[in-house]
Amino acid sequence: MAVARLYVVGLGPGKPESMTLEARAALDEAELICGYGAYLELIAPRYPDKERCSTPMTQELARCRHALEQAQRGRTVALVCSGDAGVYGMASPVLELLPDYPGVEVEIVAGVTAALSGAAVLGAPLGHDFCVISLSDLLTPWEVIERRLRCAAEGDFAVALYNPSSRRRREQLRRACDILLACRSPETPCGWVRNIGRAGEEKRLLTLGELRDAELDMFTTVFIGASTTQRIGGHLVTPRGYST
Ligand SMILES: C[S@@+](CC[C@H](N)C(=O)[O-])C[C@H]1O[C@@H](n2cnc3c(N)ncnc32)[C@H](O)[C@@H]1O
After folding, report:
1. Does the predicted model carry a pTM greater than 0.90?
2. Terminal CA-CA length for the chain
């Protein structure tokens, strides 16, 4: 009997060169590729004839169940996510649902998450201890997000913010900056990168005080420096601590 296999694949930020060889091998092997339409478009040029199944942005659980059902029928399926599948991606819901699909083998294939690809665009803002916080309160109560921001501020972590803003959530970034400003100077070096590795990639270096009033969107990842972070030339750098 054919093995029922589902690969959950992080595609990296967008450009084909940023995909891992392991991710490419999983997509090459898959008979069916499932995912959100925009991510399927990223890989369509390489797999024009492969069967694809797209689901809307808000249908995450339906997308996972469909991929698991197709794998249970004995097909080799790849469910794709941007960045890394385990970072605000489909890997955890797939594994939560897996007990309902006996016989399916799941393999999670790592990808380059936006914190890492965006950091490389700006320089080395995550060169020392850092944390990643999503400002989306769709699945996480805002009070929990605020507590995590306060802890990051108190711990002097460099911070990568995912989901910094959307049409429905304009105030969150300003509130996040206010929490960090309670412990950090308004001059703290920060940056953002939009559409990392995709058409229209943009970046900007700015201060924490300026970031508070920035108008960003959900295609952007934000970097907030720790107390040691510096702007060196056009780069954002959090030193390791060597005396250079
Ligand atoms: C639901 S999370 C998905 C994260 C993804 N699994 C990853 O590992 O990068 C969506 C957020 O990731 C960030 N993001 C993902 N891809 C990005 C890209 N190409 N450019 C900028 N930000 C990106 C943005 O902050 C966006 O709001």
Report:
1. yes
2. 61
What three-state secondary structure class fits 204?
strand
Q: Measuring from each residue's beta carbon to the nearest atom of ligand 1, which residues come in under 6 Å?
A: 13-14, 81-84, 87-89, 113-114, 118, 162-163, 193-198, 218-221
Measured in angstroms, how far is the CA atom of residue 12 from the centroid of ligand 1? 9
Sign of the torsion formed by the C-alpha atoms of 111, 114, 119 and 125: negative
Centre of ligand 1 from the C-alpha of residue 219, in Å: 7
List the chain pLDDT tens, one digit each, 244 residues. Answer: 567 899 999 999 999 999 999 999 999 999 999 999 888 988 989 999 999 998 877 789 999 999 999 999 999 999 999 999 999 999 999 999 999 999 999 999 999 999 999 999 999 999 999 999 999 999 999 999 999 999 999 999 999 999 998 777 789 999 999 999 999 999 999 999 999 999 999 999 999 999 999 999 999 999 999 999 999 999 999 999 998 7
